[in-house]
Amino acid sequence: MRTEEGAVVDLLPKMAPEAPDGYVSFVGRHLTSLRLESAQLAGDAWHAEEIYPEALTDVAARWQWLELRAHWFGRPGAADDYLRQVLTDRAKRWRAEQIYEVEMVVLRADPAEAVDGPGTAAEGASGPGGPGRASAAGDAATTSSGGPVFALVSETARQPSQHRLPAAPFTTADQQRLPPAPFTTGPSTASSAGLARYRRTGPGRSSIGLRQARFLSPKRLPPAPIAEAAIAWWHAYVAQRRRKRVASVVAVILLLAALTNLRATGRM
């Protein structure tokens, strides 16, 4: 709708692209406590920056309504209450979106029982293990008949010395055929001298970032309240403008559908 002066009258209150002074002072009063509370809710000071800016954006989107409640309805703490509410909601949503590591323990069949097979019972009855070995193998066979195998094997069956091959002999002639170790004293002096010719003797390379790193402070300073207020307000302004565009498109579609319906009804 357009008046005689040419000013556009919006059904919804228009939001300025820049943050007002009242909102900037509000952010300045609550920024320190907001960062601490966000760090407690997130469990880490680094992840707090993913929570409290969204809460400030939510307050900026409702700032005109909150100011109206504070001045006309006698609710001076409406903005503070709404900030705590949206901060709690944002923290819950952030924790729900995180991916946590889950430790799992997978139970498998004993590989020693899979190799021995059901013949372990006969071997235990006649071998040096005696009755104890036969009973252990019998328990393993009973368990494997019903489902996954959880074998109970005695200590004598777990000794790998009977199945392990003897180590190959290492003689003096084999040791002499090995190449000499570099950078050692004795016979390998010639090889060390040869490697030394390919070493870099010039100064090491460094980038501009490494040269300027000593002039930068390692401390991470918190952002200024004015910057935080401006960023949060701009995000709320863009979101409101997007919502208004979507509402306009939906209204036009509904109007066209209504006109089409009326025209079809008039023809009938």
UniProtKB/TrEMBL annotation:
Residue numbers spanned by region Disordered: 116-147, 169-210
TM regions (residue ranges): 246-264
Low complexity biased stretches: 133-147
Alphabetized UniProt keyword annotations: Membrane, Transmembrane, Transmembrane helix
Stated name of the protein: Uncharacterized protein
Organism, scientific name: Asanoa ishikariensis
Native organism taxonomy: Bacteria, Bacillati, Actinomycetota, Actinomycetes, Micromonosporales
